[in-house]
Amino acid sequence: MMNTHWILCPVCKSKTRLKIRTDTVLEKFPLYCPKCKQESIISVQKHILYPYDRVLD
Questions:
Q1: Distance between CA atoms of 42 and 9, rounded to whole angstroms?
Q2: Rounded distance, CA 11 to CA 17, Å?
Q3: How far apart are CA 44 and CA 33, in angstroms?
Q4: In terms of C-beta distances under 8 Å and separation of at least 24 residues, what long-range contacts does 4-12 make, across chains too?
Q5: For residues 2 and 51, what is the distance between their CA atoms, to the nearest angstrom?
Q6: Residues 33/12, Cβ–Cβ less than 8 Å
Q7: Which residues contact 57 (CB under 8 A, 6 or more apart)?
Q8: Could you tell me the pTM of the whole model?
Q9: In 10 A of CB 23, how many CB atoms?
């Protein structure tokens, strides 16, 4: 089984409803946080979450 982690909200740092595996790649993904009720655009590469304004190319 692959290693999985919860995606944390970049604003309030709480768990969201999504999990990522080690091979997950997301670009410009709209992430909604049920706790703070905000939506953030994120990218995920190699298990590292980058808020969209700080995406590394």
A1: 10
A2: 15
A3: 16
A4: 5/47, 7/31, 7/42, 7/44, 7/49, 8/49, 9/33, 9/35, 9/36, 9/38, 9/40, 10/40, 10/42, 10/49, 10/51, 11/36, 11/38, 11/40, 12/36, 12/38
A5: 24
A6: yes
A7: none
A8: 0.77
A9: 9
Least confident of 13-17, 36-40, 51-55: 51-55
50 CB-contact burial (10 Å; exposed 0-12 / middle 13-18 / buried 19+): middle
* Three-class DSSP labels, the chain: CCCEEEEECCCCCCEEEEEEECCCCEEEEEEECCCCCCEEEEEEECCEEEEHHHCCC
Residue 34 has pLDDT above 90, yes or no: yes
Distance CA 44, CA 21 (A): 10
